[in-house]
Amino acid sequence: MPISFSPAAIWPIIMLFASNIFMTFAWYGHLKHKGTAIWIAIVVSWAIAFFEYCLAVPANRIGSEVYSTAQLKTMQEVITLLVFSGFSVFWLGENLTWNHAIGFALIAVGASFIFRG
User: Distance from CA of residue 113 to its chain's centroid?
Assistant: First the structure.
């Protein structure tokens, strides 16, 4: 499936980045506040995840006009790694190591095969 620079090709990428920011905060944001009761973390995470779904579902619907489902899923996974890397450094204060960089790079190389004709 040839990829163009139409709105149906660009908007899903933007929306998947935004949805992954919400998703990452929903799944891992509470780790900065471990003293909070777990039920509160769950409720807040579900509330945040609602906005993730409000972006991810239409991103996939729009993107399916241009991309295969395998390509959409692969984009989402690579975007997740990018967002998570920034999140872990800037929100959680963790360091990324060369092992992380190499592992993420290998995943990106593997993902690139999904986009080959």
Answer: 19
